[in-house]
UniProtKB/TrEMBL annotation, chains A, B:
InterPro entries: GntR_C, TF_FadR/GntR_C, Tscrpt_reg_HTH_GntR, WH-like_DNA-bd_sf, WH_DNA-bd_sf. Keywords: DNA-binding, Transcription, Transcription regulation. Residues 11-78 form the HTH gntR-type domain. Transmembrane segments: none annotated. One of its GO terms (molecular function) is DNA-binding transcription factor activity. The keyword Ribonucleoprotein does not apply. This is GntR family transcriptional regulator. It comes from Antarcticimicrobium sediminis. The keyword Ribosomal protein does not apply.
Amino acid sequence: MKSDIDPLEQRSRSDQIAQTLEDQILTGRFAPGARLDEASLAEEHNVSRTPIREAFHRLAQSGLVVQQPRRGVFVRVSSPVEILEMFEVMAELEAACGRLAARRATDADIAELRQAEIECRAACDAGDIDLYYLKNGIFHHLLYAQSGNGYLEQEASRLHRRLKPYRRMQLFLRGRLQQSMDEHAAIVGAISAGDATQAAALLRDHVAVQGEKFHHVMSHLPKT
Amino acid sequence: MKSDIDPLEQRSRSDQIAQTLEDQILTGRFAPGARLDEASLAEEHNVSRTPIREAFHRLAQSGLVVQQPRRGVFVRVSSPVEILEMFEVMAELEAACGRLAARRATDADIAELRQAEIECRAACDAGDIDLYYLKNGIFHHLLYAQSGNGYLEQEASRLHRRLKPYRRMQLFLRGRLQQSMDEHAAIVGAISAGDATQAAALLRDHVAVQGEKFHHVMSHLPKT
DNA sequence: TTCATAGTTTTCGTATACAAGACGGTTGAC
DNA sequence: GTCAACCGTCTTGTATACGAAAACTATGAA
């Protein structure tokens, strides 16, 4: 079952560096548009330029940075439009997961999903936004897995990760947490009932709202 | 407008090699499971191992090959299950394109789509499978663009390309061409009518059928 | 005959070196 | 004074070299 993952267990240095850089970009250490310097990063990680370059390639492929020939690599400036587009696709992917999960999820799966939902609610009630954020991620990844489609799971996870920073900021909007919670409950209900259409629609809206909220956040931000 | 693309115009040698290798894999020069040897490929392209390695990274990220640390890179063996999964995702992505296009396509867009459909039919009537294959690709890419979502367009195109070899083989199944043609007409009709739900459903089925047909083809093949 | 272990060989991962292109500053001319 | 061209420096892209890890093979023992 996990034979696909096993070979990746032993990762090379460059892969580790790519992971680190990705985290640093997503958490904001490198601002959008900033240039990533091979030499200084090599020095910082105590490696030569080669692993850094390999890491850059990974990041470029995942879309986090852009490489300009003979110029260097820059943290991609995702325009609000692009981000909204990604949220729109995320909504469709999650809807697809829901549609399939409604047909394929076993009783054990649903119990697991319900448990995740409960833990989300607990975190919400405790006012622990970090914990909610974590549990919410688990909830959604469970859903991806329950689509029974490994490729879909992988793609959904990829985009989910990509949208991480933008999803987080809108958690702080007043009332969003409770609303999101209620949506989770409805989603679990639909899947549990085997209602594929309903599950898909609920999930599409659930994520689409995140895009809208992001729009709100953007409009409140000082314009650059 | 095309400032995003401009820098890529001047591509490095490694990018060209990656492109070449990708084509060669998709067209079957390298069989699934075959090992890609850095040294011999470097010699063949008259470059050192470095650009080859960079090309490998690109291919690995796009999922065409897998890199096993200290083992080498291998053309990914996509199991029938994986391919069916990809068709399922493709169906959802195209459905999403249709849903959005039904709301966003302009009259000019629809005229363009209808024109593409006519050219498909012409190729079909002429019995020119290669031409049909080409026109069919144009039809679908138009649809992706008309979703009005650049990210969705990009992702759909990526997966479309990935499934290229598997889609082609099922074109030869008896009766599939005519059936596919009728589906196209219905899809254009739904989008033209602005019926998002119908367009999405038609497209999902249209692509899902391809997955099923692939399944048929597989079952007729001598088992490896 | 079969299995295990040790040695050899291959090739991967990283380091370093070198070449070519791009950016910036300075200088000269109009 | 301003603009353009040229030169220097910096950074990327590619080549080459070296160390290490894994696979293969052969040999010996059970």
